[in-house]
Amino acid sequence: MSLFIASAHAQAEGASAGGGEIFQIVFLVGLFALFYFIAIRPQRKRQKEHAQMVAALSKGDEVVTSSGILGRVTSLDDNYMVLNVANNVDMKFQRIHVHAILPKGTLKSIS
After folding, report:
1. Does one domain contain both 21 and 48?
2. Average pLDDT, the chain
């Protein structure tokens, strides 16, 4: 008989120790919050800054594309831009592929 009483007593102690489940939930929420502040939030900030830069493009800006091509913007469309990369050489790119807007006169100093 004492064998059954001991197991019942052990079950009663295990049922009252519910702090482990709460710790797991708090740990998962904390892990998600850490992931949000380390990965998701900075990426969204970079995306917003890039979208503002692409929206601010204007004719005559000197840019570098994500593929490394440097050129001067000669015309703009909603989704596309035409870059003058050399004398009589114009290339059409999507606006989202602009990596950076260069300071005026950069193309002359490079070539």
Report:
1. yes
2. 87
